[in-house]
Amino acid sequence: MTTTDPSSTTPPPDRRPGGRTARTRAKVLDAVIAQLGEHGFDGLTTDTVAARAGVHRTTVYRRWGDVGGLLADVLDAAGDDDWIPPDTGSLEGDLCGLNEEIQTALTAQPPVMMALIASSFRSEPAADAQQRLWEDRYTRCGIIIDRAVKRGELPPGTNARQLLVTATAPVYHQLVLLRTPVDPELPSRAARTAALAASAGAFTEG
Amino acid sequence: MTTTDPSSTTPPPDRRPGGRTARTRAKVLDAVIAQLGEHGFDGLTTDTVAARAGVHRTTVYRRWGDVGGLLADVLDAAGDDDWIPPDTGSLEGDLCGLNEEIQTALTAQPPVMMALIASSFRSEPAADAQQRLWEDRYTRCGIIIDRAVKRGELPPGTNARQLLVTATAPVYHQLVLLRTPVDPELPSRAARTAALAASAGAFTEG
């Protein structure tokens, strides 16, 4: 936001990366995640977050507005990382690794990801941020399909997003909606099924 | 609950099928569905439902307890029907018809099914009833796989539930979680993909 003169001896400006604002944000977002994991959406208020983070409630109110703003920032911050998809040397291996990561996140304790998904049914800003995060992840995973095409495992013109949604949807469906007990075989089975269909040309146009 | 003497001239007992209790239940559940479709979970209280149904609030309170009880009964009533899955003559056609039904329900206005799914993140009884309903539907759809095995479209021993979850999961994932715009090709594409993988043996053990 502001630029600094490196020769200056004044304290770091408020919005310098890694400065006080960034530290406050980190404390507040950590507090949101902890509160959400322990008490769910219903236990989340700007006051409880402020108290947990040890910051003034007016700071939270002015910067994030309300719970929806806090949740959206948690999700946007989650997407602001250097995550890259698994690179195992095969399409099925990459998809299986991806599904394992999803299953691990969806079954983690405390259930932060499940609580964030549940929150997306309560708050439009959270829903929008959740969708941005998912779309960003699917976009980054496009490299899995690029590599598979280069290796000759997939026909050129394979629709990456359709293949990735097909590979991952059963994991989300079973754990988020059907809420069946964890099936350790599910990530690999869903990966194998999608890879099989994709190599048969299920995701190429025409 | 009670049995009746057909020669009796007394008024129908309260719990006779189609009697006063059944009519009250129908009015109350219709009111829950209408209220939920228009105002979502947050607009749902036993009082608003009672007023909308034109019944005493104590009737609603005594019979259903709370909003969770009302939602669970709506979902249980939805499963108490004679629904049968599509029978088109082919595995892919049956799965496509099933996905078309799901997509239609998930995009209906007012958005009753979406509101019921959202409610399952707020109420344990609603979540339990929603899962019972889905499991019942998947069980009924087993006949799709039985017919396909008999026609020689699928290997014997194909796991019906795994195939059905794979076929339907992308429709739920796109519409309920990713909330992408409706894709008219999605039901048939997901059906084709699952059928392709299934005929290649993706859902047989070993």
From TrEMBL, chains A, B:
Signal peptide: none annotated. This is TetR family transcriptional regulator. Residues 22-82 form the HTH tetR-type domain. SUPFAM superfamilies: Homeodomain-like, Tetracyclin repressor-like, C-terminal domain. The keyword DNA-binding applies. It comes from the Bacteria. PANTHER family: HTH-TYPE TRANSCRIPTIONAL REGULATOR RUTR, TETR-FAMILY TRANSCRIPTIONAL REGULATOR. It comes from Stackebrandtia endophytica. Keywords: DNA-binding, Transcription, Transcription regulation. Residues 45-64 bind DNA. InterPro entries: Homeodomain-like_sf, HTH-type_TetR-like_transc_reg, HTH_TetR, Tet_transcr_reg_TetR-rel_C_sf, TetR_C. Pfam families: TetR_C_11 (PF16859), TetR_N (PF00440). The keyword Transit peptide does not apply. Residues 1-22 are annotated as: Disordered. GO terms for molecular function: DNA-binding transcription factor activity; transcription cis-regulatory region binding.
